[in-house]
Amino acid sequence: MHDTDAEVERRREAEARQKYGRGQRVRTKSIRDKKLRETLKRVEEKNKKAILAARDAEILQEHDAGFLEPEGEIERTYKVKQDEIQRSVSTETGKKGFKLDLPMGPYLAEYTRNGKELLLASKTGHVATMEWRNGRLGCEINLKEMVRDVKWLHNNQSFAVSQKDCVYIYDRQGVEIHKLKKQHEVSHMEFLPYHFLLCTTNPKGHLKYVDTSIGHIVSEISTHLGPTTAMCQNPWNAILHMGHGKGQITLWSPNSSTALARIQAHRSSSPINTVAVDRAGKYMVSGAQDGTLSVWDIRNYKRPVDSDYFTHRPASSVAISDKGLVAVGWGTQVSIWRDIFGKMKIKNPYMSWGGEGQSVSRIRWCPFEDILGIGHSAGFSSAIVPGAGEPNFDALEVNPYENVKQRQETEVRSLLNKLQPEMISLEPDFIGNLDLASAEQRARERDLDRKPDDIVAKLTKKARGRNSALKKHMRKKGQQNVITYDKLRLQDAIQANNAKAKENKERELERYGPALAKFATNGK
């Protein structure tokens, strides 16, 4: 039996209302007010037209904006080379894909928060900054000693370099402006921009928080888990995720001397090589020495279904873009995965890069751009990845096209709005909520007219319910002596209360004499 056209249309309208609707439909027949009923009818008609228009517009939304789409079932997007992409995109976009042949590799790469400038540092001591869009060199220095890690600070005016002995801070001209003498052999660094905290860790497992605005150490914690093999920050709550040698990932804040949480992300025999958290603070991706790649939902610390991925070589670096693309650098190649956070396991990557004998050391996504920066043994490469960047940005928060005046105003405003380290927690939404239980307790304590609690009434209330679940369990286990003890304690309390009342009445008789004797009740 076939459905009529009216039934099919009603069913399609119900599906569209469930997908695009604004709640349940208002029943106007039960409204007595004629004017209100007509007004609600017009509103419902407008909502119905909007729902149907949204349903009809689905035909125009076949693909996600910005991503590569294969023309047939046989074609694969990961086979597309960078030369083909540069020929297909506009001239300005094609210029963003380039290569820098630097002989002093391997190189580490870091972008500023607005993606305007690039920081490059080789492990042999070569450090350089540049405005990568126009190729303008900022500074270039040769430290002539080992460099373990580099990190931009709150803007492009200063950056930190972890050298052989301690951490140095340089300005954008490459002039040394500060030396952190207490930061010895730092292997990993992270900077919290809203708290102005530089977080460092060394092979001995010591975690330190340094306030760069005043130059003081805020907190110093010993993890007691051996050398830290990987570290990243959660942009949502400023919690540090640290990887260790036995496959564990721990979460840290400057307010606790112990880990806030521990996750056994990989096998105990596989050290963590790299870890990354997405911008929303929902998912975490970690890579271990055994070549496994795990995806975790850190909202409830549960691994999604079919989330185990493998690489032919251990992953050296992982990065997550603003749109949720996961780039994994392993060996001489980089694999870029799309929709990896879903429940279904993805068989093939979205795009790939490399295979030319250049060992990947660090990969970073450029903010607000479809660009992936790759630091490798032969220098640096900028790869174009369509659909990776967030096209919309808040200029009052982070402005990729800011001038000098705007940068100065932003720096002053961020210093005035600097958050204290005590505000770092797993749940940052607790700020602004009311503690109703504590408020009620404080109001009860301030109530001077409150009557004192009656001990006998409390005991009587507690003694009620001979057939409660606890009493039944105790009788079943043969613990009658506990019940007998409660009865005896209640009887003693009642007798003591009666004796005290009788004593008070006798004292009154002795004090006022026989004039009040006729009001006495003989203590009954």
Automatic annotation (TrEMBL):
Placement of WD repeats on the sequence: 265-306
Chief location: nucleus
Single Gene Ontology BP annotation: maturation of SSU-rRNA from tricistronic rRNA transcript (SSU-rRNA, 5.8S rRNA, LSU-rRNA)
Region of interest: Disordered: 1-29
InterPro entries tied to this protein: BING4_C_dom (IPR012952), WD40/YVTN_repeat-like_dom_sf (IPR015943), WD40_repeat_CS (IPR019775), WD40_repeat_dom_sf (IPR036322), WD40_rpt (IPR001680), WDR46/Utp7 (IPR040315)
Gene3D superfamilies: YVTN repeat-like/Quinoprotein amine dehydrogenase (2.130.10.10)
Domain of life: Eukaryota
Entry keyword Repeat: yes
Keyword 4Fe-4S (UniProt): no
SMART domains referenced in this protein's UniProt entry, alphabetically: BING4CT (SM01033), WD40 (SM00320)
Compartments in which it is found: Nucleus, Nucleolus
All residue ranges annotated as the BING4 C-terminal domain in the record: 349-428
GO cellular component: 90S preribosome; small-subunit processome
Start-end of Basic residues biased regions: 19-29
Task of the protein: Involved in nucleolar processing of pre-18S ribosomal RNA.
Protein's UniProt name: U three protein 7
Originating species: Pseudovirgaria hyperparasitica
